[in-house]
């Protein structure tokens, strides 16, 4: 984890939290993800003349990843519709790093160093603290929590698939362009089927916001894919989830969701974990 890779992943974390907040802010989640997905596909199409075609060995990974990304977006839509942004986003993102660590060890044979293992574990402890704060004394929203956990499993799946695929592609920019196209058309196609002729009128007032969210989404994941070609998957995945702190702050400032001292302590724990992972690099 060089300084350049670290900065790229941290920038990806900020932009990722930003597009998720934009997606959550629009209450009609089908419209929101139609704009994000459709905008991403448009950006991918515009990029095609300027990027290389991914190598043949990467194309099966692209197809599997597209399916996993669509599944992820459907589950994220579900969790956002059921729970608070400041809680569902951390649960969804916080599930992924530990699962990625295990999958990377099993399928990619990237065995984490002791420092990386400690960093991922400490970071995840901080993420769990951010996620679970506020549940004491209330009935947990189990449907929302389960949707967010399933979202995290989908994230772990596509992280490992894309980590292998982008390394085999010969072009991280070509890989991200084609991935945006393949994954981005599914939800708009369903929205057109479900809403029919009304869809255009429903989308028009939010088009600028959707294009901004799509741009942030492409930047965020493009940076992560580039980082995965230069560093092991597990620490990249864990460092990327520092977006949870940004997401919790956005929830507090813009959505008026309480942050509170326990989340501040959990955020500090996350910073310690990130420091351990960087020491590994």
Distance between the termini: 4 Å
Main sheet, how many strands, which sense, barrel? none
Average pLDDT number: 81
Query: Per DSSP, what share of the residues sits in E-state strands of 2 or more residues?
Result: under 5%
Give the low-confidence spans.
none
Q: What structural class do helix, strand and pairing data support?
A: mainly alpha
How large is the count of helical segments? 13
Question: Describe it for me?
Answer:
The chain has 281 residues and is mainly α. It is 81% helix and 0% strand. The protein contains 13 helices and no strands. The protein has helices at 3-25, 29-47, 59-82, 85-108, 114-132, 142-169, 172-184, 186-195, 198-203, 207-228, 233-240, 243-254, 260-280. Helix 1 packs parallel to helix 12, helix 3 (59-82) crosses helix 7 and helix 4 runs antiparallel to helix 5 (114-132). The relative contact order is 0.24.
Outline of this structure?
The protein has 281 residues and is mainly alpha-helical.
């Amino acid at each position: 984890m060089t300084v350049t890779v670290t900065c790229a992943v941290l920038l990806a974390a900020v932009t990722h939290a930003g597009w998720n907040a934009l997606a959550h802010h629009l209450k009609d989640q089908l419209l929101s993800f139609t704009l994000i997905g459709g905008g991403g596909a448009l950006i991918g199409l515009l990029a095609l003349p300027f990027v290389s075609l991914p190598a043949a060995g990467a194309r099966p990974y692209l197809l599997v990843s597209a399916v996993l990304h669509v599944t992820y977006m459907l589950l994220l839509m579900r969790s956002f519709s059921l729970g608070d942004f400041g809680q569902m986003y951390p649960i969804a993102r916080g599930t992924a790093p530990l699962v990625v660590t295990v999958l990377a060890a099993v399928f990619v044979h990237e065995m984490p160093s002791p420092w990386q293992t400690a960093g991922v574990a400490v970071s995840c402890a901080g993420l769990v603290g951010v996620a679970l704060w506020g549940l004491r004394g209330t009935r947990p929203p189990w449907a929302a929590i389960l949707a967010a956990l399933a979202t995290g499993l989908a994230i772990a799946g596509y992280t490992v698939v894309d980590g292998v695929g982008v390394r085999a592609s010969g072009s991280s920019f070509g890989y991200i362009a084609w991935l945006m196209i393949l994954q981005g058309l599914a939800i708009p196609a369903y929205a057109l089927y479900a809403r029919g002729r009304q869809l255009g009128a429903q989308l028009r007032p939010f088009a600028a916001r959707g294009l901004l969210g799509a741009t942030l989404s492409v930047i965020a994941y493009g940076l992560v894919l580039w980082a995965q070609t230069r560093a092991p998957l597990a620490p990249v995945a864990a460092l990327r989830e520092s977006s949870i702190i940004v997401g919790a702050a956005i929830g507090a400032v813009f959505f008026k969701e309480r942050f509170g001292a326990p989340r501040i302590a959990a955020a500090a724990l996350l910073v310690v974990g990130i420091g351990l992972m960087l020491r590994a690099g």
